[in-house]
Amino acid sequence: MEDLTVVILTKNEEKNLRKCIESFRGIAKRFVIVDSYSTDGTEKLCDKLDSELQSIGSKLDFYENKWIDYATQLNWGLEQTNITTEWSMRMDADEELMKDLVQEIVTELPKLKSGVNGVILRRRVYFMGRWIKHGGRYPELLLRIFRTGKAMCEQKIMDEHMILSEGQTVEFKCDLIDNNTKDLEWWTNKHNWYSNREVLDHQMTVENTLNEANLLENGESTKQAKMKRVVKNKGYYGLPKFFRAHIYFIYRYYIKLGFLDGPEGRIFHFLQAYWYRFLVDAKMYECEKFDRKMKQQGDLKA
């Protein structure tokens, strides 16, 4: 068993949480669940999972904390739950480790030298049960494992990433999976919620109210994350509203071969690259037309 604590944020994740935790196959000493007052059976499931984990020498601790934003909630979990293991890990409830990644963690994590404080993992996204392999969606490179106390989530409303305070990173070869089992209605509700966050994040960026010192540029994360942010802020948002959503979909679906992902890919790339980006532009246009500021978002109600 690895000297590892896994921090997972939840809100109504009864359908996803078990497969996330079971995918570790007993290699983590502790799981920390930070819940934003779920109304389904998440807490009851956590009690059951804790009993199961204790039988193999692990444990699960359940905490509740009022939601402000993702970064605040995650940093609260990292700082306020008495994590004493050498390594910490960020996971989402709808994510899973593949078997070969479990083995890679067991084999490679103990070998890391003292100057290496972070591990970048490769994530593959599943949609309606299908791996979305094309359209520029794979692999997503994410800093997910880090020495306890050496990383935090950047204080950003949208597209927040983990950043190291010091040290180097290494990249593991195997994948984790983003495989949410909730239905399309939940997915569209979530992206409608995301679109409000996206507009507010853009408004704050334009007004320079974010403390740039806390963002990726001054922290160790991934080159991929930094490049995506530059392209988005310096390139995509420099194009005309609405037209840019059209261009982005063509880029994803045709140039980056998203059509090879089959009917599930057609739905995913259209909704995520066109509908969602068009919705963000529509809300930006509405705010500008009526001189409105997007309000701070609460937690997802779906």
Structure summary:
It is globular, with a radius of gyration of 19 Å.
Topology, pairings included?
Blueprint: E1 2-10, H1 17-22, E2 28-35, H2 42-54, E3 59-64, H3 70-80, E4 87-92, E5 95-97, H4 99-108, E6 116-127, E7 130-131, E8 140-147, E9 151-153, E10 162-164, E11 168-178, H5 184-206, H6 223-235, H7 243-255, H8 262-289
Parallel strand pairs: 1-2, 1-4, 2-3, 6-11
Antiparallel strand pairs: 4-8, 5-11, 6-7, 6-8, 9-10
Helix pairs in contact: 5-8, 7-8
Helix content: 25-40%
The number of distinct β-strands equals 11
Shape: globular
Radius of gyration: 19 Å
The topology string of helices and strands comes to: EHEHEHEEHEEEEEEHHHH
Strand coverage percent: 15-25%
What structural class do helix, strand and pairing data support?
A: alpha/beta
Major sheet details: 9 strands, mixed
What is the arithmetic mean of pLDDT? 92
Unreliable stretches: 210-214
* End-to-end CA span: 36 Å
What oligomeric state best describes the polypeptide chains here?
single chain
Number of discrete helical segments: 8
